[in-house]
Amino acid sequence: MQRIAEFQKVSFEQFEKDWLKNFPETENVKEIYDNIKMPKRATSGSAGYDFYSPADITVEKGKSTLIPTGIRSKIEEGWVLSIYPRSGLGFKHRVQLDNTVGIIDADYYGADNEGHIMVKLSCDAHDEGHTVSLAQGDGFAQGIFTQFGITVDDTASEKRTGGFGSTTK
């Protein structure tokens, strides 16, 4: 196997800013940050790196919840990290990523938000009032590194500054 990436925590300042934007009532942000679990593979044959919930989070039916993971990934050029929901959450609760698949490009690492990986989940369960409870440390998403190529006439030279949707502005 090629070793092409490294997971790291974003700074506490970046995590706190992103976390409080989404969960403003939180009082123990530093404790949450200190207990963030780094993504890892469950077995030597696993393709996906499990991402873990940084805190207890509830995803309600019909609503979206943005989860700042506290994680960034330094990725070699020519590779991408794709983020998918854990299959068990999809089967049991119809949990999905709002953008279907999250794409983390290698140059996202140097973005203005330190390359902070955030995952937006929604629950589309059939029964009324359905909620999905993620306990701190529960796996809720998985990331898979994939190599990619570019066209022979590619001339892209712009530099990334932001996150979601920033490369098409």
* Rounded mean pLDDT score: 91
* Strand order, sheet with most strands: 2-11-6-8
The secondary structure category is alpha+beta
Order of helices and strands: EHHEEEEEHEEEEE
Our Rg estimate from Cα atoms comes to 16 Å
Task: Report the end-to-end length measured between terminal Cα atoms.
Answer: 36 Å
Low-confidence stretches: none
* Main pleated-sheet profile: 4 strands, antiparallel
Shape estimate = globular
Number of helices: 3
Number of strands: 11
Helix content: 10-25%
The proportion of strand residues reads 25-35%
What does this 3D model show about the protein?
With 169 residues, this protein is an alpha+beta fold. Helices cover 14% and strands 33% of the residues. The chain has helices at 12-22, 29-34, 87-93, and strands at residues 5-9, 49-52, 57-60, 64-68, 71-75, 79-85, 95-97, 102-105, 118-123, 131-134, 139-147. The longest helix has 11 residues, at 12-22. The chain is globular and about 50 Å long.
